[in-house]
Amino acid sequence: MNLKEEWESRGLVYQFSDEKLFDAYNKWGEKFYIWFDPSADSLQIGNMFSVMAAIHLMKYGNKCYFLVWGATGMIWDPSLKDAERSFLSEEQLRHNEQSIYNQLKTFLNNIKKNYDIDFDYEMVNNYDFFKWMDYLKFLREVWKYMTINTMIAKESVKKRITDPDKSITYAEFSYMLIQWFDFLTLFDKYGVKMQLGWSDQRWNVTTWMELIRKKLDKEAFCMTIPLVTDASGAKYGKSAGNAVRVDRTKNSPYFVYQFFMNAEDELIGKLLKVFSLKSVEEIDEIVAKHNEKPELRYGQKELASRVVEVLFGKEAVIQAEKISKVLFGWENIMDTIKWFNESDLDALAVETWWINVKESGIGNLESGIKVLDMFTEVGLTSSNGDAKKMIQSASLFINEEKISNPQMIISKENFVNGILLLRKGKKQFKVVRLW
Fold this sequence. Notes:
Elements (H helix, E strand, L loop, with lengths): L2 H7 L5 E2 L3 H7 L4 E6 L8 H14 L4 E6 L21 H26 L5 E5 L1 H4 L4 H7 L6 H5 L2 H8 L7 H4 L1 H16 L3 E5 L3 H15 L4 E5 L12 E2 L2 E2 L9 H9 L6 H8 L4 H13 L5 H15 L1 H15 L4 H6 L3 H11 L1 E3 L12 E2 H7 L6 H9 L3 E3 L2 E2 L6 E2 L8 E6 L3 E6 L2
Parallel strand pairs: 2-3, 2-5, 3-4, 5-6, 9-15
Antiparallel strand pairs: 1-6, 7-8, 10-13, 11-12, 11-14, 14-15
Helix pairs in contact: 10-11, 12-15, 12-16, 13-14, 13-15, 14-15, 15-16, 19-20
């Protein structure tokens, strides 16, 4: 496949400014950019769709400029907002920018290492474009080429102006000038000819492209990729307003793995084509095999594995699968735990919440700990009386063995690979560790 054929097969093309861009970017050596909003200190799954789109373009020998909005973040985009957002402090913005830079570099270097793909990229911050610019120069360099008529034609701005119960500040109104200057600077200074954006940013990307032609009398390109949505039409990766973060200290590889294990059947092929470096033909085979017996969730397992692999690496996939085997009973749980390494045990403890027997008030393993005390101390039961009732109803387990004797005493001999696995009912786990 050539570039256009592959992008269309992967469902990455929404709109583009000119057919010529595919010829240009199919021949290697061109430059493009995507941008990131530093309103938080972590990228989310939605951001990673655009990063993967960039990788699918960099595979053809093109260089991507990953632009963090250090300047734009001081103003914010009024799009789809009913009121002005609160400003973050400069200290918080700088922290968020650095966090995003670090995540991007880790992710991109991981792709290079694990997939033996070489591509070129550069990190830039638009704060550097503005920090030495005075206001008069900004008026001459930017405002001169942008009309008020163009700016108020943008739907999100028009709503804020025409609604008597709403308003828009001059700072927010000027936001789009900053965004246009990004493309102008990257085009003029670095030779970046294309802006890659989301379909809901179409007005922006086409306007900035036309203004480059107006100011520099040169040709630029733009292309938008479709918004990735779930079956309900909501942006993928968000639930009740909470985004899935790709910072493993906020959302672990296991969490991300399980998130994609819950993907709807109809999204498997769509997500794999964006979030996987497998060929389109290989992905079609995965979908076909999945559709033979959807109840086995083969497609979800492939999807979850491939996403965690590109985000965190192959070792993270193995670990997420191990923890899933334990918490969902895919195989013999205790046999699986016997082969856990230290990192696996740490990860399991985090996912189940854990307690250190030496530092807790459970008791002394040398003299033995009563099973009722153990379950109550770790919070699986509210009291020893509650624990006794749970035992009578066959609802409490230690190392996957049903407890029948409320007088049972626990000692070091009960621990497997340094841990004791407690379970209440089918899915409530707690790990007790020796250290």
